[in-house]
Write a structure and sequence with these properties.
Largest sheet: 5 strands, mixed
Strand content: 25-35%
Strand order of the largest sheet: 1-8-9-4-5
Shape: elongated
Distance between the termini: 140 Å
Number of helices: 6
Radius of gyration: 39 Å
Mean pLDDT: 75
Low-confidence stretches: 3-9, 56-63
Helix content: 10-25%
Amino acid sequence: MNLTPYTLRRASNLALLAFAASLSLAQAQLSPTAPAAQNSKEETVVLQTFTVTGSNIKRLDAEKSLPVTVLNREAMEVRDASQASDLLTSLPQVTGLPGNETATLGATARGDNATVSLRGIPSSNTLVLLNGRRLAPHPISQSEAGVPTLSTNVNQLPNRGLDHIDVLRDGASSIYGTDAVAGVINYVTRHDYNGTELQLRYGETNYRDGAEFRSTLTHGFDFSNGKGRGMIVADYYTRQAMFARDRSFSAEADNSYRAPAPWNVSTNTTFNLRSATTEYGNYLLGTITATNAFGAVTGFTGARPTGVPTTLASATGVFYLAPNGDGLGGAQF
């Protein structure tokens, strides 16, 4: 069959009209009707309250829940701790204060130094934060398990002006480093406090000694027309000493009279724990072996001198003075 050019043009025009009609029908089927669009409602997603402690690292392996203990303001008021270290010892995870007021090598230069140990791990592995930021360690090192350590002094932190304290009880070394193997303690200050508060605290023991006094002044303010906020906490703390001689259970270390026979004698060394720091001190007899240019003794050998009976001193020269029944002192060992 032969087709003329006019016939071909007419056939192509009919094909284009048919394609345009089908396209219009498809668009009409895909377009949503007006009532359906008005009835559709967007779902509202409600997020639960969550707390971010420390650094916010956007990593999938870090976005998981960890055991955290929170000390809020109500718990801190009930505790009413005299020092910041006493506030943390209320937690069962805090097994001790390796750095404290007792003599610990060079740390005795600062008696207010206190470090925290979580779960018995050295204090250098417990990270202490203030509002999520690291604090500088105490400049004086101390020995824990025979290893010198540098730790943060928690007593430099206040007990007032705090909103809460977050204690991460699990290790977080993958986030913070090796100083967070034991856990993390984050102090969070109040950001909404505006005003002035004066808090006084006084206490003493039942023996009328060891009196302690604490005064804390807290002042919160805003500046730059409310664009910035600041807070000042001034803290003063003092405490009197307590002596072993003022306690009946520590003034005399000879507990032999409490033991049954034949251990209830003062010559028994199992229950007689006298030392040079209590009422009855130990003494050592012997011979001076060396002195320096100023006459100070630099060498001494303990031994029972000739003429001293075995009932008064041991072979190494150790003896102590103990009262007898007549109220007089007698030498024994």
